[in-house]
Amino acid sequence: MKDLTEGKPFYVLWNFSIPMFISVIFQQLYNIADSVIAGKFAGENALAAVGASYPITMIFMAIAIGSNIGCAVVISQLYGAKQYGMMKTAIFTTLLASTILSVFLTVVGLVGTRGLMEMIHTPSNIFEEGAVYLRIYIIGFLFLYLYNVGTGVFTSMGDSKTPLYFLIGSSLGNIVLDYIFVAIFEWGVPGVAWATFLAQGIACILALFTLFWKIKGISSEKGKIFSFGMLKRICAIAVPSILQQSFVSIGNIFIQSLINGFGSSVIAGYSAAIKLNTFAITSFTTLGNGISSFTAQSLGAGKWKRIQEGLQAGIRIGILLALPFIVFFFGFGSKMMGLFLEDGSVEAVKTGVEFLRIVAPFYLAISIKLAADGVLRGTGRMKMFMFSTFTDLILRVILSYLFAYWGGVTAVWLSWPIGWSIAMVLSLGFAWKVLKDF
Length: 438
Description:
With 438 residues, this protein is an all-alpha fold. The chain is built from 17 helices and no strands. The protein is globular and about 60 Å long. The chain starts with 8 loop residues before the first helix and ends with a helix. The relative contact order is 0.14.
């Protein structure tokens, strides 16, 4: 566990974030492997089936990530203030509440699987396989949820390495299982889903055992393992974060529904490109989460100036991180799409390349926006954070439909740069206002 309130902010944040970036690489590696193996060994329709349910799976992921953020900010503040007893109570409160919520959502998801697939107008030729993939994904949601919460606890205490070790094992295991289930056993789309289920489940169990071992020597505040007061404090951060993440995912469902109207080839191309795009965005989001922990620990320790220095360092790191993605996605888009699709999938490849070339240059804007969001979350300014994010979301959804009518599917991709750029200005303005208040 590492105290983020000491040392030069750039190097502290950089060293803290490196394991988190490596975690993102491995996490996205197995997400991409799902699509690569599905597309190469099960065909274009299998890739489209996995991709069609992707926005729905992201709603479940959004809830897990929102809970991760909520517990991480509160625990970071308690750790920075050296209130270790209250910190342990916060950890157990989060885990208990998360278990109850994840079981409830699993039941709701299983009951509503087909309805969700119908809601986004999934084409009939990929509907059944898409529904099977989604159902298996939801069965494993408990593991996904608790793993993400556990990761948030580790990083809030300055430990970004332990989650990395489990994620490396999980990612490599997922890829191996993908190949065995799909290429050798020929299970198709269900094989992709079961590979993710098994790999995520093992990582979750190992991460929780390690977490309990790390904190076993700390006594809970007044012997409590659950506190409604602590739950309220966590929810004050977690609920807005969950709503923000969920609404973004709901917005993506509207966009996916729009894309589904252009046919399975366009769906396949978009599915591949959005996986690559998610790789980049998740990297920037991870940096933002690191800045949140840095900010919250600094706030708990009463080091106000350090928060401003952390934001400046975070923006520089974000720009450095964005440049390689821009080069690869803009300059080598066709080769990147070739990882997912065979040479005969001309329309799908063309769709993906167009998407990447339009959005990639604006990774600079979204990286800066997410760095500023890290400060807003870390200081508890959730209304500002949500306003900026919802502005981006609403613009992207509305403009996607307008541009689809105006210029077809290629014009839809323009909504990303516009939404990101405006949201960047808002988040930076809000962060600057917060920093002036200290």
